[in-house]
């Protein structure tokens, strides 16, 4: 049973990661970003997900510092972007991200997209960062099954995380099964399909029954599928509302009803054609 915002999942290397965090995609550097991250931390969030591509690592680091919460209590994720990939350039990108965040180590470092012909070299750099103790866990984003199979064929360290687009219109069943069998934890980006699911009739009906919002029902559905989720918001009331999902549970029937909304429909790019 998932009982609180501080509940964690144990990754295959023993590191515990919060099941829910704050995403900061498309939030520009500045006061809005800093206040949003601080609001999340003040309201019990202990995980923040950024990326070099977002160009807001500096503000995320500043907010963590200003929050007053000890560094070791906050799980920080960032990612290496496509034009930074390759062995040496990934090592450099990592140090650049660390400098901007003003941190001594990262909790999770991810390959942002599977750049064809280069992501395996990138992974070797990730393995070095991990074995050198500079990051507590490493993983990937947007990897299909075939990308994972290729990576797993000769890697030294298996990915701990695969962060992908996941929501009721894109339930990723084959990928979820593959990751579950390989002990790779799935994490959802765009869990609300950029707001595109909030008026879905079946979800609204379930939300009314539980006296919750559609967003809260979807985020609860994520967690009950054992998928880590990182909804984005810059408004404190919404950040609090997104986290108010621990006083109800979806029934098996309700979970199945939401599962059936799958359309294999993306709001973001397909990894096979994006890079």
Automatic annotation (TrEMBL):
Keyword Disulfide bond: no
Residues annotated to bind substrate: 112
Listed Gene3D superfamilies: NADP-dependent oxidoreductase domain (3.20.20.100)
Originating species: Virgibacillus indicus
Domain of life: Bacteria
UniProt KW keywords: NADP, Oxidoreductase
Family named by the database record: Belongs to the aldo/keto reductase family.
Annotated catalytic residues: 54
Chain segments annotated as transmembrane: none
Site, Lowers pKa of active site Tyr: residue positions: 79
Isomerase is among the record's keywords: no
GO molecular function, one term: oxidoreductase activity, acting on the CH-OH group of donors, NAD or NADP as acceptor
Protein's recorded name: Aldo/keto reductase
Domain NADP-dependent oxidoreductase: 21-262
InterPro entries per the UniProt record, alphabetical: AKR, AKR5G, Aldo/ket_reductase_CS, NAD(P)_OxRdtase_dom_sf, NADP_OxRdtase_dom
């Amino acid at each position: 049973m998932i009982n609180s915002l501080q509940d964690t999942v144990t990754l295959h290397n023993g590191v515990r990661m919060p099941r829910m965090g704050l995403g900061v995609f498309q939030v520009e550097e500045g006061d809005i970003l800093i206040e949003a991250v601080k609001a999340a931390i003040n309201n019990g969030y202990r995980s923040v997900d950024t990326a070099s591509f977002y160009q807001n690592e500096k503000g995320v680091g500043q907010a963590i510092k200003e929050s007053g919460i000890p560094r070791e209590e906050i799980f920080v994720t960032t990612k290496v972007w496509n034009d930074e990939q390759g062995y040496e350039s990934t090592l450099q990108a990592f140090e650049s991200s660390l400098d901007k965040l003003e941190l001594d180590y990262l909790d999770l470092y991810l390959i942002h997209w599977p750049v064809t012909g280069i992501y395996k070299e990138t992974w070797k750099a990730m393995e070095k960062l991990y074995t050198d103790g500079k990051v507590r866990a490493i993983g990937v984003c947007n990897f299909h099954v075939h990308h994972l199979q290729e990576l797993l064929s000769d890697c030294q360290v298996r990915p701990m995380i695969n962060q992908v687009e996941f929501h009721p219109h894109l339930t990723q069943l084959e990928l979820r099964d593959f990751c579950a069998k390989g002990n790779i934890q799935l994490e959802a980006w765009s869990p609300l399909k950029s707001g595109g699911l909030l008026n879905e009739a079946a979800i609204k009906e379930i939300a009314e029954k539980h006296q919750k919002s559609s967003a809260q029902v979807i985020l609860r559905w994520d967690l009950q599928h054992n998928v880590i989720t990182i909804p984005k918001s810059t408004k404190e009331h919404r950040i609090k509302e997104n986290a108010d999902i621990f006083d109800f549970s979806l029934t098996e029937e309700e979970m199945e009803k939401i599962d059936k909304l799958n359309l294999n429909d993306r709001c973001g790019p397909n990894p096979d054609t994006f890079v």
